[in-house]
Amino acid sequence: MKRVFLLVLDSVGIGELPDAKDYNDEGSHTLYATSKSKYFNMPNMEKLGLFNIDGVKDKFGKKDSDTYDSSIARLAEKSKGKDTTTGHWEIAGVISSKAFPTYPNGFPKEIIDEFEQRTGRKTLCNLPYSGTEVILEYGKEHMDTGALIVYTSADSVFQIAAHEDVVPVEDLYKYCEIAREILQGEHGVGRVIARPFIGDHPNFTRTSNRHDYSLAPPKTMLDQLVEAGIEVLGVGKIYDIFAGKGLTDTVRTNNNQEGIERLIERTARDFNGLCFINLVDFDMVYGHRNDIDGYAKALSEFDSQLPRILDSLRDDDILIITADHGCDPSTPSTDHSREYVPMLAYGKKIKKGINLGTRESFADIAATILEYFNLDQDIAGTSFLKDIII
Fold it and tell me: Could you give the CA distance from residue 344 to residue 7 in angstroms, rounded to a whole number?
């Protein structure tokens, strides 16, 4: 029985990519920026080799001779873009040659008109906005009129915010499904996102009933595994990111801690295949709010739970830890940043102290996993399995 646990630390980037200037992200380094907080403490990830990775070791004063317990690499993003969907798709073997569309001036009138006509509700805002600020500014008017708050960001997203007492969550989900049907082709944004909230003005709070509606990806590693009769378990927002494609089992989570618990539960399950996990709090709760201390606390809390994860692995298991983009909380921007991501592979079958340097694509993870399951790949990426397997 072969099992791979692929864990994405959402937005934990490790330094600007060479083309970061094209995305206004020069100087971004999410991990290093967060380490400036007094709450930053990651001794267990240090033992695995996080701070020995290219672009990280110089920042943290590590030497090549330092020992560590996993095989490591720095991965470049080959796709165009810096969003969740693009990053996860590339991890799964899909290179996006064209970035998803963004709307710095809001969505075109024809899109909003069709959305209003099909939902039967008017809309408010239609501009790039912080998720917390948009409900503070438009929440009262939304409650008075029932109009939906539609907004976007620097990412390719169409977000709909609504108070749960005004628009029941199931109705909000239906409106998102309508938006997803409209936003195809030229206007095929990466994600439509339901953003329900509660409370009274000005004390509104977003709830955990967020739901993402992604475009269906082309063939990925997940599809290839399932076609071969290999199980693929999703934890967190993996189902949403891949529009349900290539998954045999899924469970949603409300926060990082719940994601860790669901991961550990699955280490106790007998299955032959991949468990794909996303821990979203780093990005959603802290990165987008430029909360350096909160981000550092979340990283430190994950690190404190890491021994539980490692101890739950069986002798034949492989754990791969990576990220999907950056979200440097120290920069003026509250959006994602164009960064390299870490790759740490750990297990009894994995060599210790191996540094693969800088790899040219996140997709190398997908190619490696497919080779581990003895499958000829139909996706992008170059396997590094032979370099790390004992």
Answer: 10
Q: Where are the alpha helices (DSSP H) in the chain?
A: 30-35, 43-48, 57-60, 84-91, 109-119, 131-145, 169-182, 221-227, 238-241, 256-267, 281, 292-312, 364-372, 385-388
Answer whether residue 104 is part of any domain. no
The last residue of a domain, from among 161, 196, 213: 213
Nearest alpha-carbon partner for 87 in 331, 322, 262: 322
Claim to verify: residue 234 and residue 250 sit in the same structural domain: yes
Q: How many CA atoms lie within 13 A of 170 on its CB side?
A: 0
Give the 3-state secondary structure of residue 100.
coil
Backbone angles phi, psi at 382, to 5 degrees: -125, 120
At 208, the pLDDT band (50, 70, 90 cuts) reads: confident
Distance of CA 47 to the CA centre of its chain: 24
350-364 pLDDT per residue, tens: 999 999 999 999 999
Residue 21 domain-assigned (yes or no): yes
Tell me which residue range forms the domain holding 161: 109-213
For 133, 255, 287, the CA distances from 332, given in Å and listed in that order, are: 16, 26, 11
Bond before 108 cis per omega within 30 degrees: no
Give the N- to C-terminal CA distance of the chain in Å, as an integer.
17
> What pLDDT, on a 0 to 100 scale, did the predictor assign at position 327?
97
3-state secondary structure of 309: helix
In whole angstroms, what is the distance from residue 212 CA to residue 318 CA? 29
Distance, CA of 153 to CA of 162 (rounded, Å): 17
Report d(CA 159, CA 171) in Å as an integer: 14
User: 299: domain CATH number?
Assistant: 3.40.720.10
Between vectors from CA 222 to CA 177 and to CA 214, what angle results, nearest 5°? 20
The single residue listed with the structure tokens 């907004």 is 151
Q: Is pLDDT of 5 > 80?
A: yes
Torsion region of 353: left, alpha or beta (phi above 0 gives left; psi -120 to 50 gives alpha):
left
Question: What confidence score (pLDDT) does residue 65 get?
Answer: 73
Q: Is 103 part of any domain?
A: no
Give DSSP secondary structure letters for 161-209. EEETTTS-HHHHHHHHHHHHHHS-GGG--SEEEEEEEEEETTEEEE-S-
Within a 13 Å sphere around the CA of 248, how many CA atoms are in the beta-carbon half? 17
Ramachandran sector of residue 30 (left: φ over 0; alpha: ψ -120 to 50; beta: rest):
alpha
